Amino acid sequence: MLHIAIAVGLLTGLTVGLAAASTGSPFLLALAEASSPLGTAFMNAIRMVVIPLVMAVIFSGVAKLGDPRKLGRLGGVTLAFFWGTVLPAILIGMGAMRVGLQFAPVVTAPDVEAQTAPELPGFVEFLVSLIPSNPFAAATSGALLPLIVFTALLAAAAGTLETGPRERLLDLADAVGDALIRLVYWILWTAPLGVFGLAAPVTARMGWDLIGGLAVFILSVIVGLAVFLAVVYLPLLKMVAGIGPMRFLKGTFGGVAVAFSTTSTVAALPVMIEEAEANLGLSSTVATLVLPLGASMYRAGSALFQGAAIVFLAHLYGVPIPPAAVGGAVLATFLVSLTVAPVPSSGVVTLAPALDTVGIPLGGLAILLGVDRIPDMFRTSINALGQLTTAVLVDRWIGGSRAPEVPPNSALRRAANP
Description:
mainly alpha; 21 helices; 0% strand; globular
């Protein structure tokens, strides 16, 4: 019922926005703009829960492993899959856009103001930045990756404590996690209004002309995402886990629907955890560890979008990308894809260092932001499917490290059925 209500809110917002753009009605334009605070409040509520929820579920999942060697194996396999699939995603995005540009009309590049891209950190600097000198400062600034490292290390240490202290810490983490998951479900009941407030003003500003002018870019990204899903995720699920496409897509529909409508995998995290356990048969340990980790740092759909955006903007501004520069563009995109925040349109904003590497004017980011709502919904859906795929594969590969399943009457189960 909730997913239907969210879909109605999205369609209503798109309809009102397009009607306002097409007719120029002052009433519809005012209505679309007046709904913007609803979207802002909804996303602020989601962001409010992100950091404590991720920390609680990762602490609980890691501490239940007990032996830190299990964490090393599970985490190593998870990160290897993350990094190993981001590279083909970038290349598929670039390839899909090169094919799509064959059908693109001639577009005049707009004038842009000179901008300076933030310096892209080296690999060593990136690794050093994962160790927070002050975890509280990292939480204040919203830096999820350093917080995950701190939480995982603290949980690994807690897993080696005596039974009494360890159980008390686990009970506290589980209680906090269950309360936050219940809070997320309460927030999701306001999603129909929030999604309306996100879709209506953006669509009213874009109108049909802008969407039509960049239709090739949008369609190429969507096709690239579909190809990536079909040639990477679905075959691996069938070969490794024995899960066919229909069972997987049907069993994950709820979480993907929330991710699609809110353009945030973190907002969909409680639903994804519930469906992963109930519909895909994952262990609670893997679901509550891999999915929050994936929501924080694994966004192959965003990497594919960024690869496509580099090719599109290079074509728009007449910037050649010789074969020798492709490697640098792919590496830059790979690094920035690891820093994409789980919030709407962050995949566009963090693209600046990769554009600077190729020599593309950074003013092109404004063009992408103007039409980003549509590809953002699709790439976020692929991000969610990729995180669920990772959890399924890791669960099959690391079957020996399973912890007891979440009981049917646990707070997590009850939160999913308020």
